[in-house]
Amino acid sequence: MKTNKLIWIPGLVCSAAYAGQATPRPNILVFIADDLGTNEIGCYGGENLQTPNIDRLAKEGMLLTNNFCSMAVSVPIRASLYTGLYPQHHGSFRNHKPVNRGLRSVVHYMSDLGYRVGRTGKDHPVKQLKVFPFEKIPGFAVGCTMSHPPVSTPDGIREFMSRDNSQPFCLFVCSINTHAPWDSGDASEFNPDSVHLPPNCVDNAVTRRMFCDYLAEIRMLDNEVGMTLRTLEETGQLDNTLFIFLGEQGPKMPFGKWTCYRYGQHSAFLARYPRKIKGSVSDALAQYEDVLPTLIDFAGSAPVDTLDGHSLLPILYGKKNAQVREWAYGIHNNHPEGPAYPIRSIQDKRYRFIMNLMHERPYSEKHMMKPEDTNDMWGSWIVTAQTDERASWLINKFVHRPAQELYDHQTDPWELNNLAELPEYATRVAEMKTALLEWMEQMGDTGIGMDVLE
Question: Residue 387 CB: number of other CB atoms within 10 A?
């Protein structure tokens, strides 16, 4: 009878299930986009462009429809990805806030399990090398705010993949696409007059032009995924590698990143590993905190009970009725991106409930909301709103928010109709609010106290 007892070797933990096997232990590759609106990907229903390389992962693996980031900001959510902890627990509960000292990350866990752990591209969180001691792999641009960055190349990841076939690799490929500024792609592929804007957008010429620039970077992102797949094929590692694609948070647009709305928190999750994962779709709830427990489980180790997330492996392997969580949670603290505006959210597969803890003040975000720049998206919305009632309504909805919001994703996926004050939803609001407050208490989340007040 085969057992899975752990064998401890100095500096290495490996599973006895792999001992003496001719087949090499499987590799892991996690590809992370940057500020990607999941709705634009072909396999998620996107209408503006074909994304054949990303779609290949869905066709040959599993697509999760209900994966969410707990915080729609890069530094905190990547810290959650790497530590398996919610932002309140790892300490980076505001953008660019360092994580707590002494934490263990995916580098430590997977190195202990015998993996070489590397990262190419975007390096958030930065300057905490003891917590995140990734081997740095060249080839992908690092600076996400860089204008006209160089095109990614495969040489670095190819060398890392093929360096030592006796030891599996765990590689994070961190693209800076589609982070603004959207100036590195070829927008001429898209006709501004015919693109499909999200329903929560003000429709004007500036928005359409900028949206084409954004789509051009999605094209570049899909090309990078294709290049990564080809490199795995060329090194003979493709079918022996668990390939996970993640969309991070939504784009730099109103209702996108820096919010607890679905457009900001909904994130692509695709997984390909043909030995165990079949082409399928799952509506199971998942969050970024679940990725590290999944990798540890995939490597054959027991769960780490100090992590906040749960292994998604039963879901990915198609176990009937597999679910790992009842709720997905969200947090946003606005400082230093603007005045304090703490938000918390909770959702199941159908409903999202949001608490705006400082709803008395207007919401503002310094990078996106520049009313004086009429050639930028928000500034153009302000101009359009002077003569367009719907534009005025969207701006007011985004800036002036009620204490509570409830949305039914089955009938209102773009969250345009707040149900929180309707009597027939009072029981649902009470249930979700209670569960959200319980989670906050478990996290030691003080709400307003975790944002910085001026």
Answer: 8
Pick the closest to residue 420 from 341, 351, 348 (CA basis): 351
If one counts every other C-beta atom within 10 angstroms of the C-beta of residue 15, the result is: 17
Cis peptide before 235 (omega within 30 of 0): no
Q: Could you tell me the pTM of the whole model? A: 0.94
Task: Write out pLDDT tens, residues 47-87.
Answer: 999 999 999 999 999 999 999 999 999 999 999 999 999 99
What is the SS3 assignment for 355?
A: strand
Host H or E run for residue 56: helix 52-60
Pairing of strands 6-9, 135-137: unpaired
Residue with tokens 């860089």: 146
Does the CA dihedral 302-307-310-311 come out positive or negative?
Answer: negative
Q: Token pair for residue 139?
A: 């080839």
C-alpha dihedral sign at 30, 32, 37, 42 = negative
Q: Tell me how far apart the alpha carbons of residues 421 and 30 are, in angstroms, rounded to a whole number.
A: 41
8 A C-beta contact, residue 413 and residue 262? yes
Matching residue, tokens 């997977």: 110
Dihedral Cα 303, 304, 310, 311, nearest 10 deg? -40
In angstroms, the CA 287 to CA 442 distance is: 17
pLDDT at 133: 98
pLDDT digits over 10-42, tens only?
334 444 444 444 568 999 999 999 999 999 999
Whether the pLDDT of residue 260 is over 80: the answer is yes
φ, ψ of residue 141 to 5 degrees: the values are: -60, 145
Closest C-alpha among 105, 125, 128 to residue 117: 105
Distances (CA, A) of 135 to 115, 241, 285, 286, 404: 12, 19, 31, 28, 44
Q: What pLDDT does 6 receive?
A: 33
Q: CA–CA separation, 15 vs 25, rounded Å?
A: 10
**What is the token pair recorded at 293?**
């427990």
Domains defined along the chain, listed by start: 25-326 (3.40.720.10), 329-450 (no CATH)
Element counts in the chain: helices (H) and strands (E): 12, 14
Task: Please report, rounded to a whole number, the percentage of residues in the chain having pLDDT higher than 70.
Answer: 94
164 falls in which pLDDT band (50, 70, 90)? confident
Pair type for strands 62-68 and 12-15: unpaired
Answer whether the bond into residue 336 is a cis peptide, omega within 30°: yes
Contact 207, 201 (CB under 8 A): yes
Closest CA to 451 of 336, 289, 286, 329: 336
The pair of structure tokens assigned to 268 is 């692509």
